[in-house]
Amino acid sequence: MAGEKGVMSQVFNWQINRKMEYPHEEHHPDRQFAFVFNLNRCIGCQTCTMACKSTWTFSKGQEYMWWNNVETKPYGGYPQFWDVKLLKLLEETNPGAQKWKGDVFDGKTIFEAAKTKAGAEPQRVLGYLPTDEEWRFPNIYEDTAVGPKGKEGSYVDDGTSLPEHKTWFFYLARLCNHCTYPACLAACPRNAIYKRPEDGIVLVDQSRCRGYRKCVEACPYKKAMYRPSTRVTEKCIGCYPRIEGKDPETQGRPMETRCMAACIGQIRLQGLVQIASDGQWAEDRYNPIYYLVKVAKVALPLYPQFGTEPNGYYIPPRWVSRDFLKQMFGPGVDHAIEAYRNPDRELLAVLQMFRKTNQIIFRYQIEPGPKIYETEIQGKPFALYDDTINGFDRDGRKIVSTKVEEPFYVRPDIHQNSI
User: Fold this and answer.
1) pLDDT in tens, 152-181
2) 84 located within any domain
3) In the prediction, which pLDDT does 157 show?
4) pLDDT tens for residues 265-279?
5) Cβ-based neighbours of 185, under 8 Å, separated by 6 or more
6) Using alpha carbons only, what angle is made at residue 309 by residues 244 and 353, rounded to the nearest 5 degrees?
7) C-beta neighbour count of 408 within 10 angstroms
8) Cα distance between the two ends of the chain
């Protein structure tokens, strides 16, 4: 529980690689809901958004609720400019010092900055309440590119030159990060928000909620949302019945969420990672989420400097300005992009598992195949092997098997269109 008179506890946040202040004592679930999104593949089709909308937020009072959304960066956002506004608030409380020193964030998190906000009442979390207008436009600035010197819609002739485009935008798919240190939980005066001990999913006890909207103000990602028709907060519930294996399709086996399963761009991979007693991820070398985040280090958290230790991870888009990406994903961007652009044999195989099954993969195994191709990528040697990667469920049963070399089919003449 929170300390008396605003006293903070000291907890360790591995994403910023130091201890930080948090209003509650250290406590962790047995497993943690986590996901990886490959932003190099997202096409902004909003299939995930509508899958969530048609499942959870189609009723009265939920018209402006988008638990899952896909926004265009750098100008888009839902609510509008959610990240720009919070970054500005953090800078105002700690001018010129919101910086990384190597892999350690030396600035202030939203919990630490809350105590130093000038002219404000004491609060547990630095945040703000979006206006009604900012919630009204979930697709504002969609497909709007940034050009030289940050001028939107400004194009140049060589805008497609690699490794970075001079004119660029990218799609950022978002949902609740089910953070290790949730800001919504920290800010709630009613203790109505909690993390499930079995999977770390963050939920709202609506019988305790009184609609103060402190969670909406505190969540740096703005994924806690107020429902005026019921006067309580609602948010992404991680489709926990599917995580529990209660969907009849999987016969008791954990299943991916609706937004994950509906993704036609094959950008999403969701899983459960084992948590050790100290709050660190227990070593699970062949869990695909663990591998991508902890071993290959190709997937990075969204705004780790906020301090919530989000459990959503992103493979950064390789064509975007590195400075912009480092602000958004932290100091691991250069390594992540280089690893993705020239993947080793194991990483290439694991990347093939995205969206190959609706069930959660707990472990993978690679069967070596023949070398089928050699070339150079950005001056570095690259070899393609037709390996087979197998995925297993919680009970060790094989649920998916796929090859690295994707098959190529030629339609026979009898099926070609004719007039």
Assistant:
1) 766 665 555 667 788 899 999 999 999 999
2) yes
3) 57
4) 999 999 999 999 889
5) 24, 193, 194, 195, 202, 215
6) 50
7) 5
8) 72
- The better pLDDT of the pair 236, 151 is held by 236
Residue 31 domain-assigned (yes or no): yes
DSSP 354-408: TTS-SBPP-EEEEE---EEEEEEETTEEEEEE--EEEEE-TTS-EEEEEESS---
Residues of the domain holding 239: 4-339
Q: Do 384 and 345 contact (CB within 8 A), yes or no? A: no
CATH number at residue 148: 3.30.70.20
Tokens 């360790």 — which residue? 12
pTM of the model: 0.94
pLDDT over threshold 90, residue 7 = no
On whether residue 368 sits in a domain, the answer given is no
Q: Is residue 405 part of a domain?
A: no
Helix orientation angle between 333-341 and 322-329, rounded to the nearest 10 degrees: 110
Q: Count the domains in the chain.
A: 1
Distance of alpha carbon 126 from alpha carbon 111, whole angstroms: 6
The rounded distance, in Å, linking the Cα atoms of 50 and 121 is: 39
User: Which token pair is 30?
Assistant: 């047995």
**What pLDDT was estimated at residue 5?**
45
Helices (H), 8-73: 47-56
Give the 3-state DSSP-derived string for 116-132, with helices as H, strands as E and coil as C.
HCCCCCCCCCCCCCCCH
**Do 81 and 141 form a contact (C-beta atoms < 8 A)?**
no
